[in-house]
Amino acid sequence: MSLELDRVVFIGRTFAEYVAMFGLDMAKLQGRRILDCPAGACSFTKEAADLGIDATASDMAYQLSPAMIRQKGLADLGHTIDKIKQAKNDYIWTNVADVPALAAQRKQALLLATEDMDRRPERYVAAVLPKLPFANHTFGLVLSAHYLFTYSE
């Protein structure tokens, strides 16, 4: 059985996942402005900023309060994990040990991101693709946590 999500879910990935997924070189990230869009509940921006990297996140969900985003994220995480449990044999479990470990990783990303939204809201810009409120050439790198590849429609 393959993973079938019946709605768009608001979950996140960690900084470490981004580094591995995109083959990021930490030295090349320094001194560049980076945009994560749509960023969802990813903790990349918070964790990058902790390392001195100038990162901004943008997502349509950021029009909601961090508390509402956290609540939606936790509900969506539960929904997604239930679906993954049904399709767990279709996954290659090399980057994460199992479904509980994946759930913990996704929850950590969500909590780090929403805590940072409370503390540093200027890093989180509400916007709807394809129109973004940034001037051309504002960012030296733009990342997306597989949103464009998760939903085939």
- Provide the β-strand percentage band: 5-15%
Low-confidence stretches: none
Distance N to C terminus: 19 Å
| Element string (H = helix, E = strand) | HHEHEHHEEH
* DSSP E strands, number: 4
C-alpha geometry? globular
Q: Give the domain tally.
A: 1
Q: How do the strands of the widest beta sheet line up side by side?
A: 3-2-1-4
In angstroms, what is the radius of gyration? 15 Å
Average predicted confidence as pLDDT: 89
The helix-and-strand class reads alpha/beta
Total helical elements: 6
Biggest sheet overview: 4 strands, parallel
Q: In which range does the helix fraction lie?
A: 40-55%
Quick summary of this structure?
With 153 residues, this protein is of the alpha/beta class. The chain has helices at residues 15-22, 26-29, 44-50, 66-86, 99-119, 147-150; strands spanning 33-36, 54-59, 124-126, 141-143. Strand 1 (33-36), helix 3 and strand 2 form a beta-alpha-beta unit.
Would you mind describing this structure in some detail?
The protein has 6 helices and 4 strands, in the order ααβαβααββα. The chain has helices at 15-22, 26-29, 44-50, 66-86, 99-119, 147-150; strands at 33-36, 54-59, 124-126, 141-143. It has 153 residues and is of the alpha/beta class. It has a 4-stranded parallel sheet with strand order 3-2-1-4, with helices on one face. The model has no long low-confidence stretch (mean pLDDT 89). The chain has one domain (15-150). The longest helix is centred in the middle third of the chain and has 21 residues, at 66-86. Helix 3 (44-50) packs across helix 5 (99-119) and helix 4 packs antiparallel against helix 5.
